[in-house]
Write a structure and sequence with these properties.
Low-confidence stretches of chain B: none
Radius of gyration of chain A: 24 Å
Number of strands of chain A: 8
Largest sheet of chain A: 2 strands, antiparallel
Strand content of chain B: under 5%
Number of helices of chain B: 13
Strand content of chain A: 5-15%
Largest sheet of chain B: 2 strands, antiparallel
Mean pLDDT of chain A: 90
Distance between the termini of chain B: 51 Å
Shape of chain B: globular
Radius of gyration of chain B: 20 Å
Helix content of chain A: 55-70%
Structural class of chain A: mainly alpha
Oligomer: heterodimer
Number of domains of chain B: 1
Number of helices of chain A: 14
Mean pLDDT of chain B: 93
Distance between the termini of chain A: 54 Å
Largest interface: A-B, 71 and 68 residues
Order of helices and strands of chain B: HHHHHHEEHHHHHEEHH
Number of strands of chain B: 4
Strand order of the largest sheet of chain B: 1-2
């Protein structure tokens, strides 16, 4: 059997980048949250903040470790599987990725050591500073990598000379047309992801009666975030979509499942797109709505997929459905924000109920949404690596054979299966182990007298290391 | 007009040796895991490197990204040429990297699994890096700036030997790091194995030195035909080796580590001097491999400002975690 190195390399990249992406998107949000908690503790001296910070730092350590190792893989994927692309685009991507390393990765790595291991070795202010630097590093990192990614979608400020891209304007290339939307969309996604994880775990702890005071605070903070950010994300996503309409109309057409350029385009809720038929085998839609959303007129013209030749069309079904998965989850998040507000107004936010039992399941939601969103935008760029400039077939490593790509793909799947299964298990162990009783900064004698924090419940409090037990009612 | 390419060659060369020295000792600690006296020593050993390993490996990422930025040809020829080897390197780094967190969270039985993962991952990564060095000495088959060789050109008896050489070298670096950062039984053990590792390094170093001119005509010419300063470099390496041995005998705590780093630096400079100016041997020099001047300049502006800051706060973190690591401390 012959394997196509281009296809296998695409699968491999999709695989390693998807597994990588779920960690940064979580740790970007969580790093800021930890910095905030450290800051609140520094300012108020309330040990509940320190307790939360200690606990979430433990979670952060595991997630960040997995993000780092899967990130090292990413920095070599371009060269191993896409060497022609690397060679062609190095004049822009090389400096951008290097800036990411020197301005972000070193910052995160060095101060992470202090954040994790230095609590008793440096003054509290310095420890807070380290937490802020880690948080800053995650954002700077997101900035550069999204510059690189956005440029591949909407290349600007560069031209081909002898088969190599040369940068003509760094400002245009860095602040390329889709960058502001993509960066904002991703930053908000990170905060939403962090919020849902912390809210889910806090709700679960409240059900168990574990460290009630601290977890009430955490739940409340996160629900405020979700209430405002989830709808904001929908608005940002809409702007991002309009940007895509302008610069990547074929991708947008695939997202809408719209084959022919037409006015009064319907918003399809369900469809079975078929590339062979160059149309949808079946569709259910709301008349005129796609035109209204995209052009603000019922008779506005929406471009069709068939504007591009069949060879230059993205995989329509994947783009169409992953987009719907992302949007669907987005609306679910908005609903949870509103539900939380209603409970808050009724003063039932901390009374264990259906809300608190469902919230832990919502932890998965932002991760699925993020991966679905990335699948939408990346598949939607197909068959281009750099939109309109370098195709997959042109970018692939010439010496790469199908079997080599298969061996490495299976290898990465095996390694990631072991590592991520273990990582998930240990994260679960950390959550199950509950929050520490021990007081941070206890070397500072008498700074904060120890007092019982939990509203009761034997769980976890007496033996912090013991797994939490309890039913789900 | 400044020669950006030359400036970049110096920066990348600096980044590579920083990586070798810094991740070298923490990979070395992993390589020595199976030889450690007991599980408690392993805990201590891991805690001596836990706050640093992430920062250390960032130099490798800088190496990758920096090459793409300044010498894209190196990136786009070496990575395809070493395709399967790169996979092994990365798989090794993944297993050892996650072991830092997982090992301390695991139950007793599983803890052993993560000790094995830490040791195995470190060893495989070190071996793979040594193989890269060997393949660089061998050279790469290219046509029109594209790799045209086979999938296993990197795997030869010569590259395996350079792989084992770096593995033992990292172990030596790890053992002297342990001498510096621990006390009691762990330190005694490290004092005992360091001379043996040093003997191993020197033995392999000697074989590679005789073998290299046979593998590569260019190096033979350079070594034999020009009576040059190049011969000072192996002499410096031997001097450092002697210092390591003497310092270990006298039970000095810091000098063995510093002298081992010197051994690495001299060997590294010897390698560079032997192949200069070829970065993708045998055909391409650093000028052939360079990216566009405006790209090199754009990156240089930032790097010249940022790298000193990076070095400063990296040094600060080493200062924060200075002194001996004792049993039961270190983990957050």
């Amino acid at each position: 059997m012959e394997f196509d190195p281009v296809l296998i390399s695409r699968l491999q990249f999709a695989f390693v980048v998807s597994f990588h992406a779920i960690f940064p998107v979580f740790t970007i949000g969580l790093a800021s949250y930890i910095a905030l908690l450290e800051g609140l503790h520094f300012k108020t001296g309330n040990p509940a903040w320190a307790q939360l910070s200690r606990f979430w730092t433990k979670v952060f350590a595991v997630a960040f470790g997995m993000g780092v190792v899967s990130g090292i893989v990413m920095s070599f994927q371009f060269g191993t599987n896409w060497s022609n692309f690397s060679q062609a685009s190095a004049n822009f991507l090389g400096p951008i990725l290097s800036y990411e390393v020197v301005t972000a990765f070193f910052l995160e790595a060095a101060f992470l050591g202090v954040l994790l291991f230095g609590r008793d070795k440096v003054p509290r202010g310095t420890h807070l500073f380290a937490a802020c630097m880690v948080a800053l590093g995650t954002f700077v990192s997101a900035f550069w990598i999204l510059v690189a990614n956005s440029w591949m979608h909407t290349p600007a400020g560069a031209e081909f000379r002898d088969g190599i891209l040369h940068v003509t304007s760094w400002t245009e290339a860095i602040f390329n047309p889709s960058f502001p939307y993509r960066f904002t969309h991703m930053a908000v996604a990170s905060f939403l992801t962090g919020s849902f994880v912390v809210a889910g775990v806090s709700a679960w702890y409240l059900l168990k009666g574990h460290k009630v005071e601290a977890n009430k605070k955490a739940l409340s903070m996160c629900l405020w975030m979700i209430l405002f950010l989830a709808p904001a994300q929908a608005v940002i996503g809409d702007f991002h979509g309009l940007n895509t309409l302008e610069y990547q109309p074929t991708k947008l057409a695939a997202m809408e499942g719209n084959w022919e350029t037409q006015s009064n385009a319907p918003l399809l809720l369900f469809a079975l797109p078929s590339k062979d038929a160059q149309g949808n085998l079946f569709e259910v839609g709301i008349p005129n709505l796609a035109s209204i959303i995209l052009t603000h007129h019922a008779d506005g013209v929406v471009p069709g997929i068939s504007e591009a030749s069949a060879a230059e069309q993205p995989p329509v079904s994947i783009v169409f459905w992953s987009f719907r998965a992302m949007v669907g989850i987005g609306f679910l998040m908005i609903a949870f924000g509103i539900w939380g507000l209603v409970l808050r107004l009724r003063r039932q936010l901390y009374e264990p109920g259906l809300f608190h039992r469902t919230l832990p399941f919502m932890i998965a939601a932002p991760f699925i949404a993020v991966v679905a969103g990335w699948v939408t935008t990346e598949s939607g760029r197909a068959p281009w690596l750099v939109y309109g400039m370098v195709s997959f077939a042109e970018g692939v490593t010439p010496s790469l054979t199908g079997w080599m790509a298969v061996v490495s793909l299976i290898g990465y799947m095996a390694v990631y299966a072991v590592v991520y299964a273990a990582g998930g298990y240990y994260l679960w162990q950390v959550v199950k182990g509950g929050m520490d009783e021990s007081e941070p900064g206890s070397d500072e004698v008498g700074a904060h007298p120890k007092r019982p924090l939990s509203g009761g419940g034997p769980i976890g409090d007496a033996t912090p290391a013991a797994p939490l037990k309890g039913d789900w009612t | 007009m400044i020669d950006f390419t030359m400036v970049w060659a110096v920066i990348i060369a600096f980044g590579v040796i920083m990586y070798v020295l810094m991740d070298g000792f923490d990979l070395g600690v992993g390589i020595l895991y199976p030889l450690a006296p007991d599980e408690e020593s392993r805990d201590i050993m891991m805690n001596t490197v836990a706050p640093f390993w992430d920062g250390n490996e960032t130099w490798l990422v800088l190496g990758g990204a920096g090459l793409l930025g300044a010498f894209p040809l190196v990136y786009s020829v070496l990575l395809p040429a070493l395709y399967l080897g790169v996979f092994l390197l990365l798989a090794g780094l993944i297993f050892r990297g996650v072991a830092f967190e997982f090992r301390f969270k695991a139950s007793r039985e599983r803890k052993h699994f993560w000790s094995v993962a830490f040791a195995g991952g470190s060893a495989v990564a070190a071996l793979a890096q040594g193989i890269v060095v060997g393949s660089y000495i061998q050279g790469y088959q290219t046509e029109n700036m594209v790799y045209t060789g086979g999938a296993f050109d990197w795997l030869t008896p010569f590259t395996l030997l350079t792989g084992v050489g770096l593995l033992v070298g990292y172990a030596l670096l790890g053992s002297t790091w342990i001498i510096m950062k621990t006390e009691g039984p762990v330190q005694d053990w490290a004092y005992r194995i360091a001379p043996k590792l040093l003997a191993g390094v020197l033995g392999i170093f000697l074989i590679i030195s005789f073998w290299t001119p046979l593998v590569d005509e260019f190096v033979r010419e350079r070594w034999m035909n020009t009576l040059s300063l190049i011969w000072l470099l192996p002499a410096g390496a031997l001097g450092c080796a002697y210092m390591v041995l003497r310092a270990v005998r006298r039970r000095d705590e810091g000098i063995p580590f510093v002298a081992t780093m010197g051994l690495f630096v001299f060997t590294y400079l010897g390698l560079l001097a032997s192949k200069w100016p070829y970065v993708v041997p045998p055909d391409y020099t650093l000028y052939d491999a360079a990216s566009a001047p405006e790209s090199q300049a754009f990156l240089l502006v930032g790097v010249l400002f940022v790298i000193p800051v990076v070095l400063a706060y990296t040094a600060w973190t080493y200062w924060v975690f200075r002194g001996k690591v004792r049993a039961g401390e270190g983990y957050h």
